Amino acid sequence: MAQLTLDNVTKTFQDDDGEIIAVDNVSVDIEDGEFLCVVGPSGCGKSTTLRMIAGLEDITSGEIRLGGQIINDQPPARRNVAMVFQSYALYPHMTVRENMAFGLEESTDMPDSEIDQRVEEATKMLGIFDLIDRKPGELSGGQQQRVALGRAIVRDPEVFLMDEPLANLDAKLKAEMRTELQHLQEDLDVTTVYVTHDQTEAMTMSDRIAILNDGILQQCATPLECYHEPNNLFVAGFIGEPSMNFFPTTREGTTLRADRFEYELGDETAAAVSETTNVTLGIRPEDIELADSTAAVNTFEAVVDVVEPRGNENTAHLQFDADADEQFTMTVDGMTSLKSGQRISVAFPEEAIHLFDTGSGEAIR
Ligand code: ATP
């Protein structure tokens, strides 16, 4: 069983200004065969987390267990994990075959015939068998990335650790490799921890997403749970593109008073926020609806500022008042034409809104 557990893992670094807490008390259980994506803004501790699992970085406190065994003090070569980097890190003077065989030759006493067989199988699996005698300089970026993956596969590890492996590829190749990686991971059924900046990767590839901010784990859940039931304002704003709109409000009874509108809550929703005065109302751009007029409850007048056509849908940047700075976004289908300066009515359906405690950032519903 390659269940990987991080138990209250913390990592601090010392620099001239003092102590930096890169990873702050993170606990997560990654199931055997699970694909976990770690996301979060730059500097939130993603790579440090991965490097601690790989053994490339000491752990300040806490425990990392693989298959129930504590691996905190095991050197990287003794951990049955294989890491794939964004930079590929291939040896330029070696062929594909030599690059893929190198790690096994150096760190195991596996017979050459078995190494050869593993390398050939992996190149076939990755569709690069024909390139096996080429050097990295004679390969495209996508082919080099496959070699880097192959080097991890031949080690037959219990865990794959991937640090932005697709970051250097163009958008089309990235999309292709995303699908290939998913198939590969399903076929090999290897527990995978995958660090990425790219939300689409995280949403489409993972069984679960772990979202970090300032070294603190904000939520670890399936992509849909993170999207529909974010734990807090940070997750709500981080997951989803364009981002969720947020409106700070003050609650009086069943009314949420925002700067530019008043939102009337139904009794059940009002009961859920009855303990909170400062409530942030969140609504995703795709949940805002066009209305015929502002006659119905929770419909408001808005002015279209700019429209960004995206083919199958359009993103409209709206304002409650043409003179106000505050903007919010709505997405409409590609056939709905909105024009800059147009006055429209928009509805915020109650079933689609998210409510957060403005002070703590925690989700209320
Ligand atoms: P990015 O997405 O930009 O790669 P990240 O989420 O992977 O960022 P980390 O590289 O894990 O973030 O860094 C987390 C924090 O730890 C940052 O504040 C970083 O500056 C700090 N840090 C990382 N490595 C060291 C180090 N060797 N010495 C001091 N501080 C470090």
TrEMBL record:
<keyword id="KW-0067">ATP-binding</keyword>
<dbReference type="GO" id="GO:0016887">
    <property type="term" value="F:ATP hydrolysis activity"/>
</dbReference>
<comment type="function">
    <text>Part of the ABC transporter complex XacGHIJK involved in the uptake of xylose and arabinose. Responsible for energy coupling to the transport system.</text>
</comment>
<keyword id="KW-0547">Nucleotide-binding</keyword>
<keyword id="KW-0813">Transport</keyword>
<dbReference type="GO" id="GO:0055052">
    <property type="term" value="C:ATP-binding cassette (ABC) transporter complex, substrate-binding subunit-containing"/>
</dbReference>
<dbReference type="Pfam" id="PF08402">
    <property type="entry name" value="TOBE_2"/>
</dbReference>
<keyword id="KW-1278">Translocase</keyword>
<keyword id="KW-1003">Cell membrane</keyword>
<dbReference type="InterPro" id="IPR047641">
    <property type="entry name" value="ABC_transpr_MalK/UgpC-like"/>
</dbReference>
<dbReference type="InterPro" id="IPR008995">
    <property type="entry name" value="Mo/tungstate-bd_C_term_dom"/>
</dbReference>
<dbReference type="GO" id="GO:0005524">
    <property type="term" value="F:ATP binding"/>
</dbReference>
<dbReference type="GO" id="GO:0140359">
    <property type="term" value="F:ABC-type transporter activity"/>
</dbReference>
<dbReference type="InterPro" id="IPR015855">
    <property type="entry name" value="ABC_transpr_MalK-like"/>
</dbReference>
<dbReference type="InterPro" id="IPR003439">
    <property type="entry name" value="ABC_transporter-like_ATP-bd"/>
</dbReference>
<comment type="subunit">
    <text>The complex is composed of two ATP-binding proteins (XacJ and XacK), two transmembrane proteins (XacH and XacI) and a solute-binding protein (XacG).</text>
</comment>
<dbReference type="InterPro" id="IPR012340">
    <property type="entry name" value="NA-bd_OB-fold"/>
</dbReference>
<dbReference type="GO" id="GO:0008643">
    <property type="term" value="P:carbohydrate transport"/>
</dbReference>
<dbReference type="Pfam" id="PF00005">
    <property type="entry name" value="ABC_tran"/>
</dbReference>
<protein>
    <recommendedName>
        <fullName>ABC-type D-xylose/L-arabinose transporter</fullName>
        <ecNumber>7.5.2.13</ecNumber>
    </recommendedName>
</protein>
<feature type="domain" description="ABC transporter">
    <location>
        <begin position="4"/>
        <end position="239"/>
    </location>
</feature>
<dbReference type="InterPro" id="IPR003593">
    <property type="entry name" value="AAA+_ATPase"/>
</dbReference>
<dbReference type="InterPro" id="IPR013611">
    <property type="entry name" value="Transp-assoc_OB_typ2"/>
</dbReference>
<dbReference type="InterPro" id="IPR017871">
    <property type="entry name" value="ABC_transporter-like_CS"/>
</dbReference>
<comment type="similarity">
    <text>Belongs to the ABC transporter superfamily. Carbohydrate uptake transporter-1 (CUT1) (TC 3.A.1.1) family.</text>
</comment>
<keyword id="KW-0472">Membrane</keyword>
<dbReference type="InterPro" id="IPR027417">
    <property type="entry name" value="P-loop_NTPase"/>
</dbReference>
